[in-house]
Automatic annotation (TrEMBL):
Protein name according to UniProt: XdhC family protein
All residue ranges annotated as the XdhC- CoxI domain in the record: 16-83
Highest taxon, organism lineage: Bacteria
Pfam families to which the protein is assigned, alphabetical: XdhC_CoxI (PF02625)
InterPro entries, alphabetized: MoCofactor_Util/Proc, XdhC_CoxI
Length: 108
């Protein structure tokens, strides 16, 4: 039997919230070039570092999760930018080209 939430990160986030877990959501808000996920893609993260969804197909998820954990701790949302011209490009693995902007916020 298939899970009723399926692969929907927003549904998973809501289920986590109902379990009393702190949750952050990362949303792709802008892309350019060969970004692997479209605008509107989501990655949800709980305070234990569990995550579902994707904002880049694996290129920047590690950094986004790290930033989301800080957002959960501080409550301060932030805009993250990654690209081949960015100094973090090689560290986060977005060497395939393109640019991506991801907004990370706590959902209450």
């Amino acid at each position: 039997m298939q899970d009723t939430i399926g692969d929907d990160p927003l549904g998973i986030a809501e289920a986590w919230r109902q379990q009393g877990r702190a949750v952050a959501i990362a949303t792709v808000v802008e892309t350019w070039g060969s970004a692997p996920r479209p605008v509107g893609s989501h990655l949800v993260i709980d305070s234990e570092g569990h995550f579902e969804g994707s904002v880049s197909g694996g290129c920047v998820e590690g950094e986004v999760i790290s930033q989301a954990l800080d957002v959960l701790e501080t409550g301060a949302a932030r805009m993250l930018e990654f690209g081949v011209a960015d100094e973090t490009a090689w560290r986060v693995g977005l060497s395939c080209g393109g640019q991506i902007r991801v907004y990370v916020e706590r959902i209450d």
